[in-house]
Amino acid sequence: MVTPSPSRGVVLAQAWGAPITGNSEARVGWSTGTSSMRTTPVAGFWMARTEVRNEEFAAFVKATGYVTVAERAVDPALHPGLPPEMRLPGAVVFTMPNATDGSGRLTQWWRYMPGANWRHPGGPQTGIDGRGAFPVVTVTVEDAQAYARWKGHDLPTEVQWEWAARAGRSGTPAHDPPAGANTWQGLFPVANSADDGFIGLAPSGCYPANAYGLFDMIGNVWELTADRWTDDHGSAATPGVDLAQAPTRVATAGQHVIKGGSFLCAPNYCMRYRAGARQPQDDDLGASHLGFRTVLNAPGP
Question: What's the whole-number average pLDDT of the chain?
Fold first, then answer.
């Protein structure tokens, strides 16, 4: 059952029984970010209809004085050997190149940009004026958890997130780009035809909701979850998926699972625009394609 609550901006997703969770697809290639299938029960919960918007995060910062991880200097103890410019406060920003050399090196389109943060998601010369309805980005799991606590909410677990994203569907979806979602159309990373209406981020909630009334569960921005990253749902092993798809560093800071894909997912590159796909994200590294939404673990009306 799904119960809308427009005044609270959330829907109640009552998930009793044993729904599909985790990765419901067989691993089909290095770029899919999927693993084995398993089922697990999940209790009912409320989930925010949209990713947290800039205007909502701004209200949190104004009320609390919170300073995000991207606005703080990098801890050299966690990342010894980083060059000086990467120790400055900042985040990883996608920059579309004119061409690539075919090596697959992320530095051809990802740059660590000092001064990039939620207020300046594309770097110091950018801002969010007039973009209050866009999802907040360049946030970390620590930032997302702080916001969630302020709201009296939590971050969704991977189980909760995937159950909500599937919206009652089961089986293995096609690997074609989804209709009605903000993903990359064209040859990544050099050409985006913007057939979906946007080259970069889209405002939260401008594409059709899924069957549970939730917007942008697939595409637009990757979404942080409460779960620490492991290579397999039943394992605490060191990550073994292809990390070349994610803007990560050699790190000891830990990683969490992110879900849903983003506006950068394309058939020739990421292809993680599916509910079952997953990826690790460094706990202390914000990125310009990374946001979050919250859940309320409470009974229904």
Answer: 78
